[in-house]
Queue: 2 jobs
Job 1
Amino acid sequence: MQKPLPFDEQTIRRIAEQYPTPFYLYDEEGMRESCRSLNSAFSWCPGFREYFAVKALPNPYVLEVLKAEGLGADCSSLAELALSEKVGLTGEDLMFTSNNTQVHEYQRAVDLGAIINLDDLTHIDYLKDNVGLPELLCFRYNPGSAREGNVIIGKPEEAKYGFTEAQLFEGYKILRDAGVKRFGLHTMVASNELNGDFFVETARMVFDLAVRIHQQLGIKMEFVNLGGGIGIPYRPEHKPVDLAAVGQGVKKLYEQMIAGTPLDPLKVIMENGRMITGPHGFLVTKAIHHKHIYRDYVGVDACMSNLMRPGMYGAYHHITVLGKENAPHDRIVDVVGSLCENNDKFAINRELPAVERGDLLVIHDAGAHGHAMGFQYNGKLRCAELLVKKDGSVKMIRRAETMDDYFATLDFSGLQSAAGR
Ligand SMILES: *Cc1c(COP(=O)(O)O)cnc(C)c1O
């Protein structure tokens, strides 16, 4: 089965003549469409907002595009806060959902006026004593055995994130008594989940909690954050999540559980990364070698340091051999990089057409948790990122690293050997 590309063959070849492979190609218009379908699914909800999980694709040009579509930024580190600030996302455009957080990170989040989402009960005092409590605070709920979770995020029971239910009630009471005025409730129980009902159930869970917290503590929640985790169809036979159906499912619950109660209006928030940019990013790489031993291999000029999802999670990423979409896919190969790590494979036992040296391979669905997870192990350098705009023009939004970048953190002057200098 094939997966369509948003760019035609000639466009990709032309770009590959101008920029050395490997590189990432992002489709701006596709990203905008993803934002619009999510916003439209929740247009019934006044104050709905998607905060893009910056870690999925931390590039200011991408954040600028998403900002123009009305998205905020979900950050979990100082650097992500600083990056978001660079494109003018400040104050409540920022959600700070971190864990195991240090004072200087909280300080920056408070200074920026970000919505702080605490990950643990003990962080209330940690924040209060070191920075001071802001007027608005949110807690992250971990439902434990009440929810199953999924492969990427694991079982909630075994996950390091969030408060238990009992801690939530205790925590909100502490906030209330300390004079905090505005409250949010967050949870994140799945990643790359393709079953839309999962998110409707998450809404049921947090609506129910918001109601009980109101009953017991008199606290009126201002928003609930359903987290990110909407999946994307990595495999050609997968179907994308029906966002409109998710929106309608959550609306129905809202009408049953919230509308007409003192909690109404209650804002619904999400913080997806993958579904916004994932399907709209492609890693373009060139075949450089063949190898035939106990198995057949195609060696490419990208490696796991450019995209580690296959090596790390065994994740499937579809591969199109450019210009051979309709050729018989009658070879079974492993597509591999050059790391001295045997899990440096983009595909295992994949049916592909015969690949020649010089063929361009396009690795799909690499627009989230792709370049962002890059590393320099084995002296491999991160590649460039290119943004293709609606009019077909191409902008390099991050250059490829050079050897100078690799050496930038080293100081050779202390070496004994003269050769080092
Ligand atoms: C990673 C992460 C997200 C985004 O997850 P996706 O699967 O990319 O949607 C959202 N919120 C938090 C707290 C995260 O850690």
Job 2
Amino acid sequence: MEDPIETRNSNLSTSMRSYENLPNHQLDDEVVIVMVPFLAQGHLNQLLQLSCLISSSYDLPVYYVGSATHNRQALLRANALNPLDIAKIHFHDIPLPEFDSPPPDFNALNKFPLHHQPLWDASLHLREPIATFLRDISSKSRRVIVVHDSLMSYIVQDVSSLPNAESYIFNCISVITLYCSLCLFSGKSIQLGEELLKKLPPLEGALPDEVKNFMDFQSPYMDIKSGDIHNTSKVIEGEFLDLLAQVESKQQWAIGPILPTKLNNISNRNNICLEWLNKQPPRSVLYISFGTSTTFSDREVMELAMGLKQSKQKFIWVLREADRGDASTGEARRFELPERFEERVKEVGLVVREWAPQPEILAHSSTGGFMSHCGWNSCIESITMGVPIAAWPMHSDQPRNGFLVTEILKIGLTVREWEKREELVNASTIEKVVRKLMASEEGDAIRKRSEELGEAVRHSTEKGGSSQIELDSFIAHITR
Ligand SMILES: *[C@@H]1O[C@H](CO)[C@@H](O)[C@H](O)[C@H]1NC(C)=O
Ligand SMILES: *[C@@H]1O[C@H](CO)[C@@H](O)[C@H](O)[C@H]1NC(C)=O
Ligand SMILES: *[C@@H]1O[C@H](CO)[C@@H](O)[C@H](O)[C@H]1NC(C)=O
């Protein structure tokens, strides 16, 4: 039987990244890589993927260092990774002081997950144990390479005191966001062209002061890095990578998408979403998920439910609240849906309240659209799988990611303008945008562009493709 996931990804599955492009003498077991992720799902996940990629394709030892709680969470939620690859990673658990893990405030107008603040504060205590770990490992290796989140810059600062260690920031946001922020901080003008500049969403309202303070606190240590790695591809953000190079002096590598290249070997084939998708026509299903950091109010959930129903389009809706600081604590909120909603939409839609295998859903040939908060992970996954996006950004870099998707790449539609972020998005707005994306000529044209871009992005991770070349070049650099 033809496998819908494999079919969509035949390119990917044949393109297992390997080190055959690298001269052998550059592979050196004495180079050790230490990954230090920021303690939130969207960040844990990316460095775990990078760990698997580097360890399996280049045969280098990789340590994944974090709190026991979050290391466990990363493992539990490892979508689409090969268990054999995960088994090669050395997980190093560090105890974290106890921290409060309150539920998200689902009525807050600002969607930023501020309830994680106690966790961020606790995470600062990782500095000492990580320094001890790095000292120990540096005494036993020729070189230690620390790859960390920019929000962990304070914690890994002791790299600078070790003669044989160097660090690289793995950027978890789009390069367009990074570039715009750097311009703002350094007082340079953003080179975007007048028309686009007018449409660029303002930074205003994207980050609460608490977060800005946390970032300011980290920023003195960010310059310790020897370079940056970006989870993007020249095919997606070539223009912005070039612009970034004008304002950033350290070396840059665009190695994304860091996709598990072997979706044909997934462990969750029997997942209810994938089984349901197997029964739907090609490109007919809208996938809806707002990530792990957004919680909707009851009113917003009601409007979305009504809008979906009125659109008469097929859908899979992942209905979850934002993670707590420790995602394993507390009871999940039971969202109210219109009466007998799930039963009434049974033929057209599926509501899922558990962790969903997002990359596999997006890779499935029945999926034809993604309503998304435009977190960078979700954008990259959707772009790579050739799925157009109904953009509904919530906070942080998401408004700019949405702008990239709709205005620059033109592979999506806007659900709600950033300026109207404090207004309720009503059912009729949702119905309209869903119909336009899933059942209109304009939607088909957008879908076609998405598929073409996805194809090009997947090619960039194959032998000779730009992302593969950049990754090889990064590995050659650190193993020099
Ligand atoms: C990097 O890209 C992949 C898609 O290839 C995605 O699955 C992963 O979560 C991304 N990480 C980040 C933060 O960009
Ligand atoms: C898939 O995984 C199994 C073990 O989990 C392994 O034996 C097999 O070789 C893998 N296949 C591919 C194509 O990687
Ligand atoms: C829904 O919202 C849109 C945009 O804000 C508005 O134009 C429209 O009148 C609203 N419709 C209803 C039925 O409230």
